[in-house]
Design brief:
Elements: E1 2-6, E2 27-28, E3 31-32, H1 33-44, E4 48-53, H2 57-67, E5 72-77, H3 84-89, E6 99-102, E7 106-109, E8 124-130, E9 138-142, E10 148-153, E11 162-170, H4 173-184, H5 196-205, E12 210-214, E13 217-220, H6 224-237, E14 250-251, E15 255-257, E16 262-264, E17 267-268, E18 272-274, E19 279-281, E20 284-290, E21 295-297, E22 300-306, E23 311-313, E24 316-317, E25 320-321, E26 326-327
Parallel strand pairs: 1-4, 1-6, 4-5, 8-12, 14-17, 15-18, 16-19, 17-20, 18-20, 19-21, 20-22, 21-23, 22-24, 22-25, 23-26
Antiparallel strand pairs: 2-3, 6-11, 7-13, 8-11, 9-10
Helix pairs in contact: 4-5
C-alpha cells in the first residue's frame, strides 16, 4: 500500500507562525503535527509515500529526509493550487496499488489496520466523525449498510452529521484516477477548485462501494484556538515531562516541559507545552504552547502560542506571537 499526503497549502489561518513554518510542521504536544501521522504509517508497515508539496517545500523535504529516512519519499510540487483533486492527480505516476490519502490538517484516532481486513467487494473507505455543528463541514450521506452515497458541503439541514475528516483508503486506484480525470474535465467548484470528493462520487455512480468508518477522535490543527485545544488533548492522553526541582514553581497537570527549560517563580498549567531552551520567570501560563529558546518574564498568559526565540516581558492575556518577535515595555 502507498500513501499520498497533500501538503501544498499556505496555512493562512495559522499566521504569523506559518510565515516561517509549514503548517504540517507546526508543533503540538512538543512534536510536529505530521509526525503523529507518519509514526502511525510506519507502524502500519507503509514504505512509500508521495508528498504533494508547495509552500515552504524545502522545509518539508528536509524534515522528512532527516526524521524519516527509511520512507521511500517522492516530492511533487503542486504549482497551481487547483484543489484536492488536482493535488492527488499529481501522485498518479507513482501509484500502481491501493493507497491511503491523508490530509494533515487534523489528527485522528482511527484503526488504519482495518484496510487489511476490508471485504474484496469494497472499493475503499472514507473515515468520518459525528459532529453537532454539521453546517461547518462536508458531511457524508450513507445507505442503510453504511456505504457512502454522496458528500454534501456545509448543509443547512441536518441531512447527516457525519463529517468528512480527510482520511481515505482506496483499493480501486484505477477507478479513482478515472474519477479525478472526469472531475478535472468538469466545471470548477467554489474558489476555483476541483474536489477529490467529486472523484469519489464518480466511483460510486459507476458501481464502486466506499465504506464509511467512524473515528473515535478528530482533532483540528488548522487554526490557533484548535491547535491549543489539540495540545490539551494530547497532554491529557500522553505522559508529560516535569522539570527536576522547580520548588519555586506551582504546576498543574497536564503539562509538558522539555529538558533544558529554566523556571523561576512560575505558575504553570494546566494544558501547557514548553519546549527546550526556554526561560520563564515570575509568570503564570495556562492553555498555551511555548516554543524553543524563548524568554518570558513577568507575564500572565492564557490561550496563547509563542514561537521560537521570542521575548515577552510584562504581557497579560492571550497572544499569538511569531518566532523571533519581541513584546517588551
Amino acid at each position: 500500500m502507498k500513501v499520498v499526503i497533500p501538503l501544498a497549502g499556505k496555512g493562512t489561518r495559522l499566521r504569523p507562525h506559518t510565515y516561517e513554518t509549514p503548517k504540517p510542521l507546526m508543533r503540538v504536544g512538543g512534536r510536529p503535527v505530521m509526525s503523529y501521522i507518519l509514526d502511525d504509517l510506519k507502524a502500519l508497515g507503509v514504505e512509500e509515500i508521495v508528498f504533494i508539496t508547495g509552500y515552504l517545500k524545502e522545509k518539508i523535504e528536509a524534515y522528512i529526509g532527516r526524521e524519516y529516512p527509511k520512507f521511500k519519499a517522492h516530492f511533487v510540487e503542486q504549482e497551481v493550487q487547483d484543489g484536492t483533486a488536482g493535488a492527488v492527480k499529481l501522485a498518479e505516476p507513482y501509484i500502481d496499488e491501493d493507497l491511503l490519502i491523508i490530509f494533515v490538517d487534523t489528527l485522528f484516532d482511527a484503526d488504519l489496520s482495518l484496510v487489511k481486513r476490508l471485504p474484496e467487494s469494497d472499493a475503499g473507505v472514507i473515515w468520518a466523525k459525528e459532529v453537532e455543528d454539521y453546517q461547518r463541514f462536508g458531511v457524508i450521506v450513507t445507505d442503510d449498510e453504511g456505504y457512502m452515497k454522496r458528500i454534501i458541503e456545509k448543509p443547512q439541514d441536518p441531512i447527516s452529521k457525519l463529517a468528512n475528516i480527510g482520511l481515505y483508503y482506496i483499493r480501486d486506484w484505477e477507478q479513482l484516477f478515472a474519477g479525478i480525470d472526469e472531475t478535472l474535465r468538469s466545471t470548477r467548484g467554489p474558489g476555483g477548485e476541483y474536489f477529490l470528493t467529486d472523484a469519489f462520487q464518480y466511483m460510486i455512480d459507476n458501481g464502486g462501494k466506499i465504506r464509511t468508518e467512524h473515528v473515535e477522535g478528530w482533532y483540528d490543527c488548522g487554526k490557533p484556538e484548535t491547535l491549543i485545544a489539540t495540545n490539551a488533548h494530547l497532554l491529557s492522553t500522553t505522559r508529560g515531562r516535569r522539570p527536576a526541582g522547580g520548588s519555586s514553581c506551582r504546576m498543574e497537570d497536564p503539562l509538558r516541559v522539555e529538558e533544558g527549560v529554566s523556571l523561576n517563580a512560575c505558575q504553570l498549567g494546566p494544558n501547557v507545552t514548553i519546549e527546550e531552551g526556554t526561560r520563564i520567570a515570575s509568570s503564570a501560563i495556562r492553555d498555551s504552547i511555548i516554543g524553543k529558546d524563548t524568554v518570558i518574564e513577568d507575564c500572565d498568559l492564557h490561550d496563547s502560542i509563542v514561537g521560537d526565540r521570542a521575548v515577552l516581558r510584562g504581557v497579560k492575556g492571550s497572544v499569538n506571537v511569531a518566532a523571533d518577535s519581541q513584546i517588551v515595555p
